[in-house]
Amino acid sequence: MQELSPDVDKTSALTILTAEHYTLQMARTATITDASSRAGHLLTTISASMIALGFVAQVVSPRVLLTLMLVIFTGLFLIGLATLFRTVELTIEDVQAGLGINRIRHVYGDLEPSTRDVFVRQLHDDTAGVEADAGQTGWRKARRPRLVGTALGVSGLVNLVNGLVAGAAAGAACGLLGAGVTWSIVIGAVVALIVISAFGVALGRIGRRGVAPITTRYPRNNPN
Question: What are the TM regions of this chain, as residue ranges (predicted)?
Fold first, then answer.
């Protein structure tokens, strides 16, 4: 844990910290905007595809419709994968920026101890501090942020939508292979659950690896 030197120039330190705080805050705003925009584009593309299929379904045979569904939903799944991994990267960047802001607040308190009680947000950059600052209540004994918000935020929504798209593609494939409606629905649901669960676990590990290299300097048990 690093402490400020007693002879530090507080004016210069405050200027530097304020500039970095502003930069990190802008980075968080950019990541949130980018993630929301990408998810919105994905949902718009899926909605437009569904509307198009609704019109086509009135003039083609069921087998042609299933073929179109398989092709379109496969393409949507690939688009969703690209969106999913990018939103996870943005989530990691957001957590890293939030961790840095918590660390800067701690130094603000070191520069002027009388201001410590004024801060509403966290002053600690350990797991508990980062999760509390993000509104998360779980994983209190974790050694590093586990990105619970990944499952509840934009990337979690994209993962859910992507799983449903994969299930729809699998159901269409079953229909083309001669399976009945019931079996197509069951297999599609199973595929959707497998995709959602598998990518949820994978994304959680990616998130932990993205945040883990950042060393904790100001944990909650810091007496200062």
Answer: 42-60, 66-85, 147-169, 181-203
The C-alpha R_g of the chain, in whole angstroms, comes to 23
Alpha-carbon gap, residue 53 to 155, rounded angstroms: 26
Smallest CA-to-CA distance from 73 within 88, 53, 87 is with: 53
Closest CA to 30 of 93, 113, 108, 102: 93
Burial class (CB in 10 A: 0-12, 13-18, 19+), 116: middle
Q: Which amino acid is at 152?
A: L
- DSSP-derived 3-state class of residue 140: coil
Q: Of all helices (H) and strands (E), which one includes residue 215?
A: none
16: tokens are 């530097």
Which pLDDT value is given to residue 215?
77
Model confidence, pTM = 0.80
